[in-house]
Amino acid sequence: MKTNEFEPYTGQQYSEQEILERSENFLKWADTRRSVRDFSSKPVPQQVMENIIMTASTAPSGAHKQPWTFCLISNKELKSELRKLAEEEEFKSYNGRMSEEWLKDLAPLGTNWEKEFIDVAPWIVVLMKRIYENDANGEKQNNYYVAESVGIAAGFFLMAVHNAGLVALTHTPNPMNFITKALGRPENERPFLLIPVGFPAEKAQIPSLKRKDSSEVIELYK
Q: Does domain 116-198 have CATH number 3.40.109.10?
């Protein structure tokens, strides 16, 4: 079977002390990332958004299929349509679909069915997962570990947003089929996340939360 050619790995190498310092500094910086719901309408250059998306696209994926499409939206009419459709689904979720336990867990975050941020944020990114591909003859070609691959790309995306000094929110209206229709996406794509991106509003508020400490998220086997 023919395979791609290989090339030397040329990544950076650091001393043990540098590794420790870099890991500590990155952790401190990453720990400042927060989901924000209060956005400014201040413009963000398109090139910045494209750089962020291409950073996300460096994520590993099953068989290097890169099974994702990032829909980058600034059109006001389209954003308003997405908001209207999202709020229709969210209203149903907050008024019957969600269990009492779920609503109770959401209460400290101050969320509700209204999604003003879709109109306000300068960019809406819809991350689509590509379930399969169509070859030149229209035959289906498998993608592998699609959800895992797209999830990793989403993580890269959020850190790239944070790196640019911007904020984002991962929004998952459920069901999300309306997004596929509103954007005219092909049959092989399914919505994964709707992510507003921009600057925080001048008086943006975030919940006072505490992340789990290491003893709660690490199980060490030596």
A: yes
